[in-house]
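User: Can you recover a sequence for this backbone? Please restate the input before giving your answer.

Assistant: Of course. Working from this structure:
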């Protein structure tokens, strides 16, 4: 099977394949490094530390760095799909060229599905970091939580915006004023945005009392901007999780999350080498430069029955050196 689909052809396909850009890629741009471990430097506050005035011929005040170093190890993410013996025979002995192209395309479609699954797991890590300040690795025998150090003063729970007496704008102003580096945008769900657009306090601020109007997103963001508050954006994309023969749908970004953040990049999505990549580059003419962030391979595991597998594998983890510039609120859904 490995002779029918050359590893170089698979690498070329993956290198040229373009997948839809996920929000997390914009907030945490993707980079590939040649190590499984990296040191994340938490830069400390971006608020400047003021210098002192000195008299002539006096020693300068000695400054210090606030940065703290955190050693992190990339998470191994992989998924595979089996090629049945019947499929192997059909690809080995196609009836014509059109059938060969069709069967080959099906193999590459499977690689697309594997790659999208890996990209989904990476996106889930980025969105968990953004919403909670942590990345949880609780699957396949792993049990770990990586804490990126969002200050406790930048987290609130059980905010109730269903109560008419509570004023979401006052809440936002309070949170905004707690931040040294002022946030420039908010990410939340459409569910929370709808609560805001219908909230009596916000309607009164925008249109006065005794009105049945509902605010638009543009009207709300214009008002927020006039108060120097960040505009609100939503993210409601989902992924599926396989449970036996069934699939469950989940959100990347929690429905109850309301996160204030800067309008700059928050960190990086760091990819590294995999054990499969190391073996491949040591036993073939494939170089590390030819391997992208995700590696796709075909291999035969057993001979009776013939067990041939398509596998996608990557190591990845987001970094977030400016975690202290996030404010994470959890809003009651009902």
């Amino acid at each position: 099977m490995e002779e029918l689909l050359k590893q170089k052809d698979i690498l070329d396909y993956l290198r040229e394949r373009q997948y839809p850009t996920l929000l997390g890629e914009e907030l945490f741009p993707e980079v590939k490094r040649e190590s499984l471990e990296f040191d994340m430097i938490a830069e400390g506050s971006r608020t400047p530390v003021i210098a002192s005035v000195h008299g002539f011929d006096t020693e300068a005040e000695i400054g210090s760095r606030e940065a703290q170093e955190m050693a992190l190890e990339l998470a191994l993410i992989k998924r595979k799909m089996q090629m049945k013996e019947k499929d192997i025979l059909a690809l080995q002995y196609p009836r014509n060229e059109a059938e060969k192209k069709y069967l080959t395309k099906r193999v590459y479609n499977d690689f697309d599905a594997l790659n999208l699954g890996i990209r989904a797991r990476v996106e889930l890590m980025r969105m968990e970091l953004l919403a909670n300040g942590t990345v949880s690795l609780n699957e396949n025998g792993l049990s770990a939580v990586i804490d990126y150090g969002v200050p406790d003063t930048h987290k609130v729970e059980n905010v109730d915006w269903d109560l008419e007496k509570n004023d979401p704008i006052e809440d936002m102003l309070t949170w905004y004023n707690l931040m040294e580096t002022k946030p420039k945008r908010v990410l939340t769900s459409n569910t929370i945005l709808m609560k805001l657009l219908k909230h009596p306090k916000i309607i009164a601020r925008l249109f006065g009392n005794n009105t049945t109007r509902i605010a638009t997103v543009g009207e709300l963001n214009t008002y927020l901007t006039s108060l120097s508050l960040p505009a609100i954006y939503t993210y409601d994309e989902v992924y599926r999780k396989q449970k036996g023969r069934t699939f469950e749908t989940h959100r990347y970004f929690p429905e109850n999350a309301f996160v204030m953040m800067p309008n700059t990049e928050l960190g990086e999505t760091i990819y590294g080498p995999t054990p499969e990549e190391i073996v491949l580059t040591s036993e073939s003419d494939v170089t590390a430069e030819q391997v992208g962030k995700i590696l796709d391979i075909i291999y035969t595991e057993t001979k009776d029955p013939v067990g041939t597998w398509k596998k996608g594998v990557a190591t990845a983890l987001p970094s977030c050196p400016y975690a202290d510039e996030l404010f994470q609120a959890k809003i009651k859904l009902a």
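That completes the design. Residues 54-69 have pLDDT under 50 and may be disordered.
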